[in-house]
Amino acid sequence: MSEEKIGIAHIFTSFNNTIVHITDLSGKTISRISGGMMTKQDRLKANPTVAMFVAKRAAEIAKGLGITSLYVRINAKTETGSPGPGAHAAVRSLGKEGLKIISISDVSRVPRGGPKKPGGNRGRRV
After folding, report:
1. 84: which DSSP letter?
2. Residue 4 within any structural domain of the chain
3. Own/partner long-range contacts of 115-124 (Cβ < 8 Å, ≥24 apart)
4. Which candidate, 18, 34, 93, 126, has a CA 20 to 30 Å from the CA of 42?
């Protein structure tokens, strides 16, 4: 039995695009595929079907280099807080491709207050 090689799949999803970036545990890039590499129509880049093909291509490259298991980290745009439509499809496709998924975590940034709003104590007077 061969040794298990672990990688990290960084899945960035917005409502405009899906990017699957697979690295090893030290952070060295193994494969990075985006929705624009699969389709040339802008409206389809965030589509779950295109996200499935993106994850499939990234998984094929990773398996070719010996990766057998993945930690999945899903990242979304800060304004919405929720991942785009392609996140779930990409994770499912990685699992179907034969890679063992160890854990799935959401690493989206969360705004906590932010800078002071302009306008002073009584607000902007119009």
Report:
1. -
2. no
3. none
4. 93
CB 94 within 8 A of CB 62: no
Residue 88: which domain range? 30-106
Has residue 95 been placed in a domain?
yes
Specify the length of the chain in residues.
126
CA 90 to chain centre: 8
Please list the alpha-helical segments (H only) found in 8-119. Answer: 35-38, 48-64, 87-96
Distance CA(21)–CA(13), nearest Å, equals: 11
Q: Which of 26-35, 95-104, 112-121 has the lowest mean pLDDT?
A: 112-121
**Residue 120 is assigned to a structural domain of this protein:** no
The count of domains in the chain is 1
Residue 54 is predicted with a pLDDT of: 93
